[in-house]
Protein: Alanine--tRNA ligase
Organism: Dreissena polymorpha
Amino acid sequence: HECQSKAVRSMFIDYFCNSHGHKFVKSSSVIPDANDGTYFTNAGMNQFKPIFLGTAPITSELAGYQRVANSQKCVRVGGKHNDLDDVGYDLTHHTFFEMLGSWSFGDYFKDEACAMALHLLLDVYKLRKDCLYFSYFKGDTDLALEPDLQTAEIWRQLGIPADHILPFGMRDNFWEMGETGPCGPCTEIHYDHTGAGNCAHLVNTGSPRVIEIWNLVFMQFNRLSSTQLVPLPSCHVDTGMGLERLCAVLQGTRSNYNTDLFWPIFNAMHKETGLPQYGDKTGTDDTGGVDTGYRILADHTRMAAVCIADRLLPGRQGLESRVRFVIDRALHQCHHVLNIRPGLMGKLVRPVVETLGDAYPELSLQENKIRDVVCEAEDRYLELYEDGKYNFTKLLRKTPDIKTLDEEQILRLRDGWYGRPMSTHLIELIAGQYGLSVDRDVIHSLNTQPASDIEDEEFPCFTAELLNDLPITKAPPTDDSLKYVYRDKKCPDI
Ligand code: ATP
Ligand code: MG
Ligand code: MG
Ligand code: MG
């Protein structure tokens, strides 16, 4: 039971807070502060941004502490760190995940940060040293940034062999919260799931064999624009390790989904639907995307539950439309991939709360509300789908011989000539079900047009009762990058 997620989480907190003088700070909400340059809270450092920038004194809660640690609720849907397209198709990226974090605000720097991290992994979590790889920043000429040879030397001094210490550039070893804001070179720790000791060439390639687990950022700059970095008033350490990935390592699996954070959700799916157990499909490949569907549904239900618990309901605009988009994506799996009766997603709220409620009590406290919102969202989803099918029957009555929807027909469906306006996603989905093809170029151009979303206008409002005593969420940034796009992709073989 040492390896159960609950223990893994608390060993991290215990190590930093009880053994190394850090103060525990609660996870902040997944709704970022207005204008902080992110969509959802995408990392543990978000709530400390003013401390890094020097625009706020260390708050009274933190007074006297220059070292803090926690486990932060993070969502990476939209914005600079957008993992939505990979979720379910790989085994290591989630829309919602927990980031185990530790910080030094102008206190210790590289030496101590690296030593503490290594000691925790080797002596507390008992990872094999030869399975670990360490990357450092190799510098960037365009931005006139020096290579971080100091960090490479620190790892060497700590006993890491030279062929496990690897240089990488801006993409992997310079961490930035958003298009602007605090940033700096980082050093990352990667885990080789094969234990072969010769996987240096696989680090940062996306290979499922070698996985990034922990990022140690040396916060030194504030990015003002694409070309301008200015030094921060002082140097800080900001580290973040994915709990789900660490649990996978400690539980001896390459898949985050094969851990105690996800099994209760898969068990509930199996029990409620009679579909095969997750990972139980016949054959080696994921025929029909059933396992992928399970992963998407489990992941998205966690994301929805955490957002709703933070008072962010699915809606028409901004952040709210993103929550709705993710819920719709999960419902698409239920109704159009797995072909499950209505009601499953609501039933998955229980195991999600079971696995996360101890760490984030707001989930336990609002379990019923979360379930109500999810069920209501499903009613809306099915309503729009039925209306869409009705529109198609009308269109097909007029033009029974069509094989491909052209621009005019797509626009008419979208604009509500036959009934309720339809999203491009819904048009493509139902066209497919009728055996019709769709002009992809038209769909693509509609999806990338910065026009206001028709489907958002048409999304039925949540009932007043549900909104009761939920405070209004902060004004979110608007952006059009998020559209209904379903990728036809398979999980990589491992
Ligand atoms: P990757 O390269 O795998 O996408 P990243 O470099 O984007 O990860 P960081 O921003 O460095 O990730 O975040 C710190 C840590 O958080 C990562 O090392 C990883 O363990 C974890 N992490 C990042 N994104 C996700 C995600 N979408 N789901 C689960 N864990 C994640
Ligand atoms: Mg990433
Ligand atoms: Mg990375
Ligand atoms: Mg990283």
About this structure: The CA atoms of residues 33 and 474 lie 7 Å apart.
